């Protein structure tokens, strides 16, 4: 996009889009540039522009600043919580920071030993996981979780500035029949497709690796061009974001050792393709 080119905002797309469109309208009606509106706050013009385009959430302190400058009687502070809830629809509150962070990450490294990571799941696989872990919830609640999970995959669309995403998968994931054989084949094909398009890097940790440096827990490690790195860990009903530099460094070292123990990317891809064919042909291991 050329510098200075105006991008029209469709406020009907979502709550964040409506919020961003109203923010731009009020700012322009007041005759202010982005730079003038953020003057005196702790945020830059680029950050405010991304809020207007529904790419970032509005922090409460910035919302109060905007209301004060624009004289909007607390409107943007009152509504920013609605936007936050809309953004995390289908996700737990503890995952909200990660939803925001992964859109701006430079690199994402993930180890998810018991299920395929949410960023890589097909609709059928996501539904099976949600139903298994939340068996008593309504169909509407399940649908919201599945749609929220699938929406994260926009990171891998061709027109998105994709972070470098690297995932290590345990071989057991390639063999565990969470779905019927055709569904499992499609889940594995989805990963193969992303690898072939050079959207992700994938390694498989084989059964034969035995003990390894990351035997306890899962992790997502993210780095950014304009912020310190983060680690996110998750268990069944809780998730934790870690930004302590020493702990982040410990997780990074463990991940590097895990990656060294895994198969090379080409051998890993061949194993995933072979597992997909086994499911397609009814030859999967039992």
Automatic annotation (TrEMBL):
HTH cro/C1-type domain: from which residue to which, for each copy? 23-76
Concerning Pfam families, the annotation shows: DUF5753, HTH_31
What does the record give under GO molecular function? DNA binding
Protein name stated in the entry: HTH cro/C1-type domain-containing protein
């Amino acid at each position: 996009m050329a510098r200075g080119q105006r991008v029209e905002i469709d406020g009907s797309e979502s709550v964040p889009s409506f919020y961003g469109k109203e923010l731009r309208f009020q700012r322009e009606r007041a005759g202010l540039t982005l730079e003038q509106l953020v003057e005196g706050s702790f945020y830059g013009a680029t950050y405010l522009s991304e809020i207007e385009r529904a790419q970032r959430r509005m922090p409460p302190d910035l919302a109060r600043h905007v209301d004060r400058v624009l004289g909007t009687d607390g409107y943007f502070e009152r509504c920013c919580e609605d936007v936050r809830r809309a953004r995390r629809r289908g996700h737990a509150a503890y995952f909200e920071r990660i939803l925001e962070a992964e859109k701006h990450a430079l690199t994402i490294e993930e180890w998810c030993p018991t299920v395929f990571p949410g960023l890589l799941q097909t609709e059928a696989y996501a539904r099976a996981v949600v139903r298994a872990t939340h068996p008593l919830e309504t169909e509407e609640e399940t649908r919201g979780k599945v749609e929220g999970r699938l929406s994260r995959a926009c990171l891998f669309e061709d027109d998105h500035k994709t972070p470098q995403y690297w995932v290590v998968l345990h071989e057991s994931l390639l063999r565990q029949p969470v779905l019927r054989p055709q569904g499992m084949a499609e889940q594995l094909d989805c990963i193969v497709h992303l690898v072939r398009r050079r959207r992700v890097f994938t390694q498989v940790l084989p059964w034969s690796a035995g003990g390894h440096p990351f035997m306890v827990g899962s992790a997502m490690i993210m780095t950014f061009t304009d912020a310190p790195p983060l680690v996110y860990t998750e268990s069944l009903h809780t998730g934790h974001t870690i930004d302590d530099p020493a702990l982040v460094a410990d997780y990074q070292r463990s991940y590097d050792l895990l990656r060294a123990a895994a198969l090379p990317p080409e051998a890993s891809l061949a194993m995933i393709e072979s597992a997909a064919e086994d499911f397609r042909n009814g030859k999967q291991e039992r």
